[in-house]
Design a protein that fits this description.
Order of helices and strands: EHEHHEHEHEEH
Mean pLDDT: 96
CATH topology: Rossmann fold
CATH superfamily: Flavodoxin domain
CATH class: Alpha Beta
Radius of gyration: 16 Å
Length: 190
């Protein structure tokens, strides 16, 4: 069994991230490449700014919120980060959530669904690759980039994907499953 965690990176009030995440979750369920999908909203996880006294490499966590976060991330085989671009970068809550842990991320692929205005969040997506590769995560090349995302919300207040987004999502999900399976032997040693 393979488990996919979809992480909503924005915590801002009035954010559009949950709508984007609901669409990619629906696409992932239709794709059926992962037997279990966990939709993780960082606004609900609500991690304080790093408050653990020990380095995450030690896995010597003292707070219940960290233990819960560790278990949730550890149980996933692959990730999708649903992320806006803030000032040419990714969000502070996403960086904080990543920095809480170390081994739990190792040897797992990550797909990037970025959104924004004309740049479609691509600068944030490029920036986060340096962070995740430091943790031995594998960002897949296939990604979904959504320009002018607010114009893609329909009268039902849901994201209405176009054909390019649908095809990109399928390609990303295919690759996430392929890479997750390939990395599985490394995760079992970790």
């Amino acid at each position: 069994m393979a488990k996919l965690a979809i992480i909503v990176a924005s915590t801002r009030p009035g954010r559009i991230g949950p709508k984007v995440a609901e669409w990619i979750e629906s696409a992932a369920r239709e794709h059926a490449g992962f037997e279990e999908i966990d939709l993780v909203d960082l606004a609900e996880v609500n991690l304080p700014m790093m408050d653990e006294p020990h380095h995450p490499r030690l896995r010597d966590y003292v707070h219940e919120h960290t233990l819960d976060w560790s278990a949730r991330v550890d149980s996933a085989d692959a990730f999708i980060f649903v992320m806006p671009e803030y000032n040419y970068g990714f969000t502070a809550p996403l960086k904080n959530a990543i920095d809480y842990l170390h081994h739990e991320w190792t040897y797992k692929p990550v797909g990037l669904v970025s959104y924004g205005g004309v740049a479609a969040g691509t600068r944030a997506a490029q920036m986060i690759k340096a962070v995740v590769t430091t943790l031995k995560m594998m960002p897949v090349t296939e990604a979904v980039s959504i320009p002018f995302v607010h114009g893609m919300i329909n009268e039902d207040d849901q994201l209405a994907p176009n054909d390019v987004m649908v095809a990109a999502a399928k390609a990303m999900l295919d690759e996430l499953r392929r890479v997750s399976d390939a990395l599985r032997p490394l995760r079992t040693v970790n």
